[in-house]
Amino acid sequence: MIALFLRDLKLSIRAGGGALIGVLFFMTVVAVIPFGVGPDLNLLSRIGPAIVWIGALLAALLGLDRLFQAERDDGSLDLILMQENPLVLTVLVKCLAHWTATSLPLVIASPLLGLFMNMSEVAIGAVMLTLLVGSPALTFIGAVGAAVAVALPRGGLLVSILVLPLCIPVLIFGVSASYAAVQDPAPFMPPFLILIGITLFSSVIGPFFAALALRSSMD
Questions:
Q1: Per-residue confidence at 68, pLDDT binned at 50, 70, 90?
Q2: What is the pTM of this model?
Q3: In b/e form, how buried is each residue of 6-40, taking b as 16+ CB within 10 angstroms?
C-alpha cells in the first residue's frame, strides 16, 4: 500500500502538471473576484472565506478525472481489479495520494489568497483549517464520479457535473465554520464537527461505491 501511495503520488504530480495547475487555477479564480466586485476592502473581507472555498472546490474538481486515468490507459486497471488486496483499500490509498498531490497544495496556498482578499488572521486560519479537514471529502466523493466515468474517453466534464452537487454540503459547512470563527454570535464547533463528520463518512462510502463502479465499468 505504501508503494502504491508513492507511485500514485508521483503520477498525480507528473500528469498534466498536477499540483501546479491546481494551484494556478485556484489563484486565478480568487484573483479575478476583486476585479468583479470592486475595490471595497470591507466587502472583500466579508466574502473572502466563501470565495477561497469556492476556488478550492473548483480546483479540486479539476484533476479528478485523472484519478484512475493512468491505470485505464496502460491496462493496469484490470490487474488492480484482480489483485488479492481489497479493492476498497486500494481506492482509499489512491484517494489519499491524489489528495496529497492536488488538494494539500491548495490548503498551503490559501493563506496567501486570504491576504489578497483582505481577510483577518483569524479568518485565514479558519479557512485553512476547514480546507484541511474538508478537502479530503471532495476527493473521496470525486472518486465515485471518476470511477463512473473511467470507461469514457473524455469523462472529465462528466466527473465535474456528477460530483459538484454532492460537494455542496462540504462547501456549506466549510464556509459556515469559517464565518463562525470571525462572527461572535455564531459558534464555530458545530459546523466544524459536521464538516469532520462528512469527511469521515465520505472516506467510508466514497471508496466503497468507487470500487463498485470500477467493477461495473470493467464487466
A1: confident
A2: 0.87
A3: eebbebbbeeeebbeebbebbbebbeebbeeeeee
